[in-house]
Fold:
Amino acid sequence: MRDPAAYRVDILFIHNPEYFLMDKIKSSNENVKGYQNQMLDRISQSFETMEEAIQKGQILSYGISSNSFSLAEDDKHFFLFMI
Structure:
């Protein structure tokens, strides 16, 4: 019998989710807030799925790796995931 821990991921990152915004928001008059909310919804759904994976022992932890954390808060590609 194989050890389930041998097939477990230690950490799973959502890498640069703001690329969704960069792709969707081409000009300043775009629906910035709508796209930001859509991205946050997608992240929330991903976190829920990853929480289930933790409960099943498939992953140990998860998080976000993002280049946009260094942007100014008023930048249209910045996001702060609020829990």
Observations:
- The mean pLDDT is 83.
- The longest strand covers residues 9-15.
